[in-house]
Amino acid sequence: MEVNQQDRDEIEINLVELIRELWSKKGIIFLSAAILGLAVILFNKLMVTPQYESTTKLYVLAKQDGVNVTNGDLQASTLLTKDYAELIRSRKVSETVINNLGLNMNSETLLGKMSVAAQPDTRIVTIKVTDKDPYLACQLADAVRNVAAQHIQNVMSIEAVNVAEEANIPEHPVGPRTKRNGVMGALLGGVAAAAVVLVVYLMNDTIKTSEDVERYLGLSTLGTIPVSEEEHKGTKKKNKKVRRK
Amino acid sequence: MNQVTVKNETMGYQISEAYKSLRTNFQFCGEDKKVIAITSCTMNEGKSSISMQLAVSLAESGKHVLLIDADLRKSVLMGRTKVSQKGIMGLTHFLTGQCTIQETICATSVKNFHLIYSGPFPPNPAELLGGKYFKSLIEAIRNVYDYVIIDTPPLGSVIDSAIIAEICDGAIMVIESGVISYRFAQEVKKQLEKSNCPILGVVLNKVDMHKQSYEKYHGRYYGRHYGKYQGKYEEKSEESKE
Hints:
The complex is a heterodimer. Chain A is α+β, with helices and mostly antiparallel strands. Chain A contains 10 helices and 5 strands. By secondary structure, chain B is an alpha/beta fold. In chain B, 43% of the residues lie in helices and 20% in strands. Chain B is built from 10 helices and 9 strands. Chain B has helices at 13-27, 47-60, 77-80, 91-95, 101-104, 125-130, 132-142, 160-166, 182-193, 215-241; strands at residues 2-6, 35-40, 65-69, 81-83, 105-108, 113-116, 147-151, 170-176, 199-207. In chain B, helix 1 packs across helix 2. Classes of the chains: A alpha+beta, B alpha/beta. Chains A and B meet through helix 9, strand 5 and helix 10 of A and helix 1, strand 8, helix 9 and strand 9 of B.
């Protein structure tokens, strides 16, 4: 029982004290947030090459026969968009694109640059290609779309895959998202500093108040002598030095 | 008898008030607690200042007080006082049989307050303090003074204070706020308990009143209501010193 009691004592945290401690260290926390936020922004601005994204779209329509588009065709196509997306991502497509354009990259790199998404409840497959060169991004997107269309026609033995949107030449870079990253960095810095403050507070098992004296030593406090005003500012640093010795 | 001057430490209102409440609490420990050892866990926690101030404070309340600096290893009392004449004998002189008790006791500028310096650093402080001379010293002065306060070395570093506490009526632990881990303090307390000397209590030193919840009382209550007495008090105390 006694051991239990002691264990419970040790994990007891004074929430008010904790918040007060955090509040007293708010300068450090904000400073850390500002520094890390600025560092991330600077890094993004100076070191990271901007990325451009080109988008192209395919329209999927599995027409059975005849001229009219039936309701059944539309539904079948909707179900097929996922297959299309998967086929576009296939290795054959990416390898063919690399061969056709004579690029110096492997298919994984190209797959990393492109993202294929089938919009739900539509029959449109969007292909996005990201690259530091906007023209190459556009070229790649178109090439991927063309090769993929061929591939899909072969695999699914359908007549044609329709182009919904040609690839564009992007004017503005999509990445890096400097602002968002900066905010994330600032948040991370603040949280990390707060965590450090909390850990230091929780690790600090020193006797600070007369309550601590009673709790840990079972002795009464005869007197509490405050820090003298002149010493007040200098003591903290001095104390730390003494402790390290 | 040698005459020495106690350097006046300018204390704030809060601090002098704190020493007064320490004196009062100490007096409530009982009349039989006459010989008191003051120790701490490590050095620089403020033992000497507190022993000195407590002694002065008790002397000012009209008691006959003797302060013995038994920190034979690293004495600071010499720096806190002004000695006019040379060749003052200290505790080590007496403990090694080189002089009598009377020769070591110095009168101070504070009425009823006498003190004994530690003297030169001996090679075997623990043995000297454990010897019969020290015991006979305490027995002899017990009947002369109302209070005998013994400033001792830190118990966390050396065993001296446990030896001294053995022949004392009580011990006071000085703990510097926010520096000593409670495990360390518990160790020191255990060590002190082995000497069969009742621990009267703890004096918490260098407490940051601004930071902690003491502020509630000192900042607002005392500050607003009793703050107006502050000026009067300081004037009075200065007058009395002169």
